[in-house]
Amino acid sequence: MKKKLIQSFNLEKRGINRVLGDLETEIMEVAWSRGEGVMIKEVTESISLKRPIAFNTVMTVMNRLSDKGFLQKKPGEKAYCYLPVQTKECFLNDISRQVTEELLHEYGEDAIASFVQTLEKASPEYLKALEDLIKNSKDMKNDDTFKE
Asked: How far apart are CA 112 and CA 118, in angstroms?
């Protein structure tokens, strides 16, 4: 089973801030934007362009993100280098999947009914893409049934 990314989900916030703290989000955004490993000094300098921040504060949060499994910490020549464990797109996909699974586990058919009601606002193109996804999922399930 995959490790749960979400420890809390805040409906009052937007985007990634629903599952990560403000500084955690800023740090992850810097790490994702670089496309390669970053050092604490680089992240501190990037955030300092927007607001004052202490190196030690950034270091503490980056180490916590590493402990949580969001960043991978690798020794470098002079300092540790931190790499995102997954792309932002994969991260968002995993969060969406986990929220959906938790809602289905907790609320079952009521959650599915709410999803369907919400889809009334979706574009016809999006609904068609969802239909195709459901059809492919059913086809794959049927194929798996015959292989056993």
From this structure: 10
Diameter over CA atoms, the chain: 61
49 and 120 co-located in one domain: no
What's the pLDDT tens digit per position in 4-40?
Answer: 667 788 888 898 888 999 999 999 999 999 978 999 9
CATH number of the domain encompassing residue 17? 1.10.10.10
Q: Provide the angle, in degrees to the nearest 10, between the axes of the packed helices 40-48 and 55-68.
A: 120
pLDDT tens for 86-131 read: 999 999 999 989 988 988 999 998 988 888 888 888 898 988 998 8
CA angle 83, 84, 90 (to 5 degrees): 155
CA atoms of 46 and 8, how far apart (whole Å):
27
Domain assignment of residue 128, given as a range = 109-148
Q: What is the pTM of this model?
A: 0.78
Number of domains in the chain: 2
Half-sphere exposure of 119 (CA within 13 A, CB side): 14
| Cα dist from 9 to 32, 75, 97, 106, 133, whole Å | 21, 32, 13, 15, 27
